[in-house]
Amino acid sequence: MGKRIQLYIHIPFCVRKCRYCDFLSFPAQEFEMDMYVRQLIEEIKVQSRFYTDYTVSTIFFGGGTPSILKSVYITNIMSAVYANWVVEASAEISLEANPGTLSQERLLNYKAAGINRLSIGLQSANDTELKVLGRIHSFEDFLTSYEYARDAGFDNINVDLISGIPGQNTDSWKNSLRRVAMLKPEHVSAYSLIVEEGTPFHDIYGSEEGRKLLPDEDTDREMYHATAAILREYGYSRYEISNYARKGCECRHNLGYWTGEEYLGLGLGASSYTMNRRFHVEKDINNYLHIDMNRDITPLYEDVQELTAEDRMSEFMILGLRLTRGVSSAEFAERFGINMIDRYFYDIDKHIRHGLLESNPPYIRLTEKGLDLANVVMQDFV
Ligand code: SF4
Fold it and tell me: Is residue 375 included in any domain, yes or no?
């Protein structure tokens, strides 16, 4: 098989900023979105010249809120991708969408443009919690969007949820999980809230006093364990620390990240890992819009980092251990030409003895206990 690449396309616009969010996203006027999409299409064209021997296996529109864009923009972006890249017929093509930005017409147009997977940011089924987070939508809005998406023919839908919201208790978290699972989406992502610096949440909950207003550690653990138990009841398997899917519905794009596939990030601030280098696109929108990529593409990139074999092995371990199936010694040998157990014998052996890792040939994986202490284990592979 020839070389394959995943494309990530960043749409940095949102209706307004959620109070916990530190993603590269902001509100914008229509004309700014228009300028951005034109520049993005230019980038898609110029970049394709460097990847003529690659085929595209997955495409992921992330943000921000990609669904804030009028559907004609998504159609134009996809046309540029199809015109300049070789996209596999079975490519998974996902788009992140937020309730409150979706209409029936928009969804039908996305479908026609080639989008075949939707990832809907719900976060909670409780309207008070949604308000605390600063989300623009209610649970009812989500239900409407979800129904529109099914009606438009989307048969591969993810729903995002967040636990650990200020004021949330285990019962309300369980309720959110059940309300979502009852709708039978193909995939559920369940992340814990992280209070990021530079967000309004950090001003309130970042201090020692503020942290007391968040669910305590025991509640947090309770929620974490309830997640796997409830989703299992509804037929979902955990395949990554925070991701659950029905059989065969794992997100191929994200699996690619965790198994060391090459990916190219297009658009403001987007990260890439290709040809043994990591880099990201310029993060300042004004600078981004004024780069003449046809003349010289280098000003587009920041923080270009050449990865040594040692760096790549370490990443392969850390990312692979996020998967419940674990990290494959066979793939490791194929990729790096050495034996994974020999290379990391001391750390693997230590964590097996402590019950945090286990062997399930050809995989080494975290145990249930290890999943709880994943950070401790991963530190040793840095
Ligand atoms: S919708 Fe998502 S990207 Fe936009 S502000 Fe909210 S959390 Fe951030």
Answer: yes
Cβ 117 vs Cβ 96: under 8 Å: no
Considering only CA atoms, which residue is closest to atom 5 of ligand 1? 17
| Token duo for residue 206 | 């970042």
Looking at residue 1, its pLDDT comes to: 64
Across the chain, which has 382 residues, the per-10-residue mean pLDDT values are 93 97 96 98 97 97 96 98 98 97 96 98 98 97 98 98 96 98 98 95 94 92 94 97 97 96 98 96 97 93 94 96 96 95 95 97 95 92 91
Q: How many domains does the chain have?
A: 2
Q: Is the CB of 101 under 6 A from ligand 1?
A: no
- Say yes or no: 231 and 143 in one domain: yes
CATH number at residue 315: 1.10.10.920
Q: How far apart are the C-alpha atoms of 152 and 154, rounded to whole Å? A: 6
The pLDDT, as a whole number, for residue 353 is: 97
Q: Is residue 173 included in any domain, yes or no?
A: yes
Question: Ligand 1 atom 6: the closest Cα is on which residue?
Answer: 18
Q: What span, in angstroms and rounded, lies between the C-alpha atoms of 155 and 165?
A: 29
Residues 98, 102: Cα–Cα separation, whole Å: 7
What confidence score (pLDDT) does residue 372 get?
87
Q: What is the pLDDT at residue 142?
A: 98
| 293 part of a folded domain | no
65 CB near ligand 1 (under 6 Å): yes
**Domain membership flag for residue 299:** no
In 3-state terms, the chain is what percent helix, strand and coil (to 5)?
45, 25, 35
Alpha carbon of 69 to ligand 1 centroid (Å) = 14
Residue 91 maps to which CATH number? 3.20.20.70
Domain that holds residue 107: 3-258
Q: How far is the CA of 16 from the centre of ligand 1 (A)?
A: 8
Cα 22 to middle of ligand 1, angstroms: 8
